[in-house]
Write a structure and sequence with these properties.
Blueprint: H1 15-26, H2 31-42, H3 45-51, H4 56-68, H5 74-89, E1 93-97, E2 103-106, H6 108-113, H7 121-129, H8 139-149, E3 154-159, E4 169-177, E5 181-188, H9 190-211, E6 216-220, E7 226-229, H10 231-236, H11 256-266, E8 275-280, E9 288-295, E10 307-313, H12 315-359, H13 367-392, E11 401-403, H14 405-419, E12 424-429, E13 437-439, H15 441-458, E14 463-474, E15 478-480, E16 483-485, E17 488-497, H16 504-507, H17 527-537, E18 541-545, E19 553-560, H18 574-579, E20 590-594, H19 598-610, E21 614-618, H20 621-630, E22 637-641, H21 649-659, E23 665-669, H22 678-681, E24 686-690, H23 695-707
Parallel strand pairs: 12-14, 20-21, 20-22, 22-23, 23-24
Antiparallel strand pairs: 1-2, 1-5, 3-4, 4-5, 6-7, 6-10, 8-9, 9-10, 11-13, 14-17, 15-16, 17-19, 18-19
Length: about 725
């Protein structure tokens, strides 16, 4: 193999290098090649070539002349040419130095790679190429050179002193050769290193993105042991150490079997669909997550590896689902309760009304009078239960007015002390300057009484009943178990006791109608239902908190603050309406009575006739409209039920007002006044009388409607 002229003159001591290179190129051929080498050496020809005094072709011609004498070595001639071609065209620079650091061989790639090869040997040439100024070698190059001179080769990648995106990388290998020579191999690995850097940057970016993802990511092995977990998942488990733990241990024991089945299905193969399941974490216990599982690694032969789990915190979604389901259930039960209450109100109206008619026929000392009074009193008790049903369904007739809860609760204090046992201490604490609220005072008093009675029953051995009031301002929505309080101003009334508490299993159904933990016959199960319905109907919310059995309970009522406005009217309460028991309720005039319930219509007609009125009856709205259209009678008052088939009360009122714009109207209904069409109630001289009503209530309202020129909205 011909030697190339080195940048500096080389001495004849490089004979050993020439022998190593030629023998390596010719392989084990030996024979004539070895003789040719010996001849060339002995004639001094090789020394001339190495020293640069004769062209390389002279030595090569001598070698080839001898090679032709051995036809078996013809192939070695082609091998030499091929080795020379490969060596000249390869990307790696190859340099051989003697013991004094002088280069005695350099291939073509070396001259292409290094522009400055003069002085200092290969080590300094590499430093200059890497733009490392200074007379001293860099530590990496000096270490490689020292190792090779000690007989041990080495390899290292070195980088230039430039910004990261402009840096050059060289792979430098130094190996010892016989005779104290060093073989330097240098390869430019900048493209590979830059590609690795870009890959590393992308990997780091992807790693950061996954770690900061808003959902949990967990990687498990084939045994379902957690290997990696991102920050979001660690936050879900309160930053507990999950690495090395079975993913099954992270969920509740009761849900592990279903969770494991889902994970096993996900490992069925690469075509297995992504599985998902809602589970509750073991810690914290109130955290519900949705887990999506898919196979993470597919090996040869479709053998599955670990699992990739995407975990979403579903606690809020599940809470909203439960809240919506609870709301739907309460609404459905409320509609049912309201419908039942409406029918009961019709029956109770008839019972109470006919009792009033019977009482007019007997004296107070008669036994029949006493029996009739018993019937009426029990009917009124039943009416109280119906009002609780209507309160739960938010269809109770309410008469809201602006009140000061401090005064209302103070007035209730004496009654509450009589209701609770002497062994129970009553504590009432008020915040100063408590905001005003607008609600039905009688309804609110019933709410407080119901809560106080419940607290009394929970403290059979005595205890403390506390009622606290406070102004509360919410700037952001706040969650209260299954409800959310909107931002705004509220007056909070907290009723707490030191009783037996409420089991966790009962809290979610504590407001359900007819749900009670008392003994049979000790309660109706409507007390808290009434509380829930009344406060909700007033625009507020009620929450309950209990730390468990034996820890007491706290019921918190949140009622919106009332901002005073012009025109706020305080409706006349039913108590004030009935206070004047000696009032003359007789009168005169023609009344059109429209009621589809026969018993109610019959009682009302008889009652009004007994008070001196002329009554024309209609069973349906269509029949009443036909009477009005006939024009044979001039009516002083229209009394109509609101809920009737086909033509309802609101439609009848609108038609009647077209013919008689000043006709007074009394609306009667077993539902709340809110169920009336608002545009009808806004008309002048339209009032509302809820069922069940007594004879005196009916007669008094009719007299007021006919004789009063004002527009009493009662």
């Amino acid at each position: 193999m011909p030697f190339r002229r080195a940048p500096e003159p080389m001495k004849t001591s490089a004979t050993s290098l020439r022998q190593s290179l030629l023998m390596g190129a010719l392989g084990a051929s030996g024979g004539a090649a070895g003789a040719a080498l010996a001849l060339a050496s002995g004639a001094g020809m090789a020394g001339a070539v190495v020293s640069g005094l004769a062209p390389p072709a002279v030595a090569l011609a001598a070698v080839l002349l001898l090679l032709r004498q051995d036809r078996a070595l013809t192939r070695s001639r082609a091998a030499l040419s091929l080795i020379e071609l490969v060596e000249d065209t390869r990307d790696s620079a190859l340099v051989v130095e003697d013991g004094e650091g002088r280069m005695i061989y350099a291939n073509a790639a070396c001259t292409r790679m290094f522009e400055d090869m003069q002085g200092g040997g290969m080590a300094l040439a590499i430093d200059r190429h890497l733009r490392r100024p200074g007379p001293d070698l860099s530590a990496e190059i000096a270490l490689l050179q020292g190792q090779a001179r000690g007989g041990r080769g080495g390899r290292r990648e070195v980088v230039s002193n430039q910004p990261r995106h402009e840096a050059h990388w060289l792979e430098v290998a130094v190996d010892p050769l016989p005779g104290g020579l060093l073989a330097w191999r240098v390869r430019d690995v900048t493209p590979r290193r830059r590609q690795l850097d870009r890959s590393g940057d992308r990997l780091a970016l992807l790693s950061r993105a996954l770690d900061k993802a808003p959902f949990g990511i967990v990687l498990t092995d084939g045994d379902l042991v957690v290997r990696e977990a991102n920050s979001a998942f660690r936050a879900m488990v309160d930053n507990a150490n999950v690495a090395g733990r079975s993913v099954l241990d992270l969920v509740l024991v009761e849900e592990r079997a279903a969770f494991e089945r889902m994970l096993r299905r996900a490992t069925a193969g690469p075509t297995a669909p992504v599985e998902s399941l809602d589970v509750q974490l073991a810690q914290p216990e109130d955290r519900v997550v949705t887990i999506f599982a898919s196979q993470a690694v597919v090996h040869r032969g479709n053998q599955g590896g670990g699992l990739l789990l995407h975990v979403a915190d579903s606690t809020e979604r599940k809470r909203l689902e439960l809240q919506f389901a609870q709301s739907q259930k309460m609404q459905a039960v409320g509609q049912l309760a309201g419908g039942i209450a409406h029918d009961f109100n019709n029956m109770l109206t008839a019972i109470i009304g006919f009792c009033d008619l019977m009482l007019q026929r007997f004296h107070t000392g008669d036994q029949t009078f006493a029996d009739t009074m018993q019937i009426k009193q029990n009917a009124n008790r039943a009416a109280g239960l119906v009002r609780q049903l209507l309160a739960f369904s938010r269809q109770q007739t309410v008469r809201p007015r602006v009140i000061d809860l401090t005064d209302v609760i103070a007035d209730l204090a004496n009654l509450l002390r009589r209701l609770i046992s002497e062994r129970i201490e009553l504590k009432i604490r008020h915040q100063r300057d408590l905001w005003k609220v607008k609600l039905d005072q009688g309804q609110f008093e019933q709410v407080i009484i119901n809560l106080a009675v419940n607290a009394r029953d929970a403290m059979q051995g005595g205890g403390v009943l506390s009622i606290d009031t406070a102004n509360v301002h919410l700037q952001v929505p706040q969650r209260r178990r299954d409800s959310v309080l909107a931002p705004g101003d509220y007056v909070r009334i907290s009723v707490s006791d030191s009783g037996i508490g409420i089991p966790k299993a009962n809290i979610d159904k504590i407001f359900d109608p007819f749900f009670t933990t008392k003994e049979v016959g000790s309660g109706t199960g409507l007390g808290l239902s009434m509380v829930y319905g009344a406060i909700t109907q007033a625009g507020g919310q009620v929450t309950v908190d209990s730390e468990g059995e034996g820890r007491g309970a706290v019921f918190s009522l949140y009622i919106p603050r009332h901002e005073a406005a012009e025109g706020d009217a305080e409706p006349v309460s039913q108590v004030e309406e009935e206070r004047d028991t000696g009032r003359d309720t007789t009168g005169g005039g023609t009344v059109l009575l429209v009621e589809d319930e026969d018993a109610v219509r019959l009682f009302a007609a008889r009652a009004l006739r007994s008070k001196g009125y002329t009554v024309m009856e209609a069973r349906t709205g269509e029949a009443a409209l036909a009477i009005l259209n006939a024009g044979e009678e001039r009516f002083d008052l229209l009394v109509t039920d609101m809920m009737m088939p086909e033509l309802d009360g609101a439609s009848l009122i609108r038609e009647a007002r077209r013919k008689a714009p000043d006709l007074p109207v009394i609306c009667i209904s077993g539902y709340t006044q809110d169920a009336m069409a608002q545009e009808v109630f806004d008309l002048p001289r339209v009032s509302f009388l809820p069922k069940p009503f007594s004879l005196k209530q009916l007669a008094g309202r009719v007299k007021d409607a006919i004789e009063s020129p004002d527009d009493p909205k009662r």
